[in-house]
Structure formats: C-alpha cells, structure tokens
C-alpha cells in the first residue's frame, strides 16, 4: 500500500504505514492518560435549578496548577458539554459554519451548474444529488481551515484556489456516495431515494464518473503539484477502502487496525488531504500544513466511528438509510469488533451471515450488551481529542473556534 497521503508530520517522514499507526496509538494513549490525571481525585458536579442557568463546579483533592492551559481548557469543555446535555441542547451545525456561510452560499450556486451545464442528461440527477439534504461539512471545513490559516499569513481575502478546492472536495465526496449506493444497493440516502433508485444504475454510474472526472480537471487547473498529488491519492484511497471492505465481509477475524485502515481510506483521507491543501493555498508553514492534515485525519476517523455507532443506535428515519444495514451486509465496524471480545455467540451469528430469522436483531443486541457501543465511543473521543490538539497552532478566532466545535458536533451526533 502506498503511504503518500500520510506525509503528515515531519517527524514521521519516511516511516511505514503501520509504524505511523503505532505512533498514533501512543499519542492517543498519552493524551487520555493526561486527561485521567486531571480527573483523578476530582469531583465534577452539575446543578441546574428550575428556570435558572446551569452551573458546574469542580472540587479536587489537590489544586490544579495555576495557568495550566490544558486542564483549564479540558474543564471548560466539560462544563460546556455537560450544560448542553442537561438542557438537551446540541451544537447547531448552522452556527458552527456561520463564519463561512457566504462562502458556502457561493459554492451551492456553483455545484449544480458544474455538473449539469455541459450534460443536460445529468441535470436532474445533479439536482437530486446536491439537493438531498447534505450538510456540506467537508467544504465548510475547507473554508474554515482556509480562513484560519490565512490569518497566519496576514491575508484578508480568500483565494479562488480555496473556493475551487472546496468544490472539488464536495464533488469527490458526492461521487463516492453515488458509487457507494450502487455497490451497496442502497435505496435511501439522507432520507431520500438514491440516484440509482430514481434514474437507474447507468445514470448513477455516469453521474459519479463525471464528477470524478470534472473534479480531476479542476484539480489539474489549480496548478499546484503538491495539492494535485494529495487529492489524487484520495481517489486511489477510495478504491483501496472499497476493495478492503469487499474482501472482508462477514470476516470475524479482522482486527481493529484493519477497520481503522479502511475508515481512513473511505472517509478520513479526503478530509485530511483537503485541510492540508487549504493550508498550502494560504501559504502556511509546512508545520502548520502537517497539523491541518492531522486535524482532518483524526476528525474523519472520529466521524466514521460515530457513523458506525449510529448504525446500531438510530432508526431508519433518523439515519436516512436502513438501520443496521452495515452489519446486515457483513461490514464489521468498531462496535461489532469490540463486542466480539465479550460475546462469543456474536461470532457464530456473523459466520452464519444472518440467514436465520431474527439472527440480525440478536446480533445487534449482543453488540450493545457486549459494550461495543461504549468502547467505540471511547475510540471516537480519542481521535477527536487528537484533532483538537492539532488546532493549537492556529490563531484564536472565529474560524478556529468553529473547527473545534466541529469536532464536538461530530461526537454529539451519538446523543
């Protein structure tokens, strides 16, 4: 396997893929060890009187060192999170992306014309593709990283290259979804019928192929070899992820590392490459570009892990696709892999490919009983914390704040 897309940290240059994965695990363990030190001997209590603002107090057996930014940031984050949970509030994505709302408005106007103007046959399909309730998270992240890194270079106006990069990112993402739906024979996406369900497999494949081709054309015209290599690697990673998934269906022997590899290829690769590319177009230092790659990679992994949790915990109406569909098709994700450690019966059901009536429902219950959901959530939190750490190189401001909140938003989707 190639490791081009993982040229993320100068200190990791030249290392093999598995060596970098081992480094990631050590960083993650170190991060959460530090958090546990803060928590030991501490009592975090939450109170909210009826009709009164919520408050949170922290008592520790030994005082937190004055000026300890890490502990202070952690406790402030706990306060914000617990208060919202008590009020049953969640972060609003619209509020998070507000600093780049005008950028996204311009992007939305361009996307349909990019696909349909030269190909009227695909116009109605394009309207279905880009009007299916997508959140535009990926281009929003591109714009937020662009604006945050521009501050370091003392730039005031976002470049045309940044805008084109956001469009390319969304086209590649959407093309991959169309092809995924064809491969998975999924009839519903984001609560609406998929392109291949409405227009047939032929139109769906053509629409996906065209968007990959169009994004490649725009990419070449960005005239930046480093970015071209980064984004081109993403398309290769998509194929690698699909091949890995197809070759391991109903395989109860796959490891968590196998799962994280596939999750990187299918989800995190695009986000990591686009965030690094945004920093490159801002003229940021190589070290900042490395950190932006890390942010995208860990955010993408956290997003995929949470997505896989939701497959077990939410209904079809909430998911916008059939609940339990991944497990039913033999795609074993983090919750199932963790539960296999404690539920031997789950392995038998997976090996049977759920041919007996009620076996899939039984498997879902075993995943929940075996602690698969909780352990997967802890893994998502570890990746999320690494994403937050990568933002420390950015100047304080609206863009950085939104990038931090984007991480929290990803985790809050579970609740």
From TrEMBL:
Transmembrane segments: none annotated. Gene3D superfamilies: Farnesyl Diphosphate Synthase. Its cofactor is Mg(2+). Pfam families: polyprenyl_synt (PF00348). GO terms for biological process: isoprenoid biosynthetic process; plastoquinone biosynthetic process. GO terms for cellular component: chloroplast. InterPro entries: Isoprenoid_synthase_dom_sf, Polyprenyl_synt, Polyprenyl_synt_CS. PROSITE patterns: POLYPRENYL_SYNTHASE_1 (PS00723), POLYPRENYL_SYNTHASE_2 (PS00444). Keywords: Isoprene biosynthesis, Magnesium, Metal-binding, Transferase. It comes from the Eukaryota. One of its GO terms (molecular function) is metal ion binding. Signal peptide: none annotated. Belongs to the FPP/GGPP synthase family. This is Solanesyl diphosphate synthase.
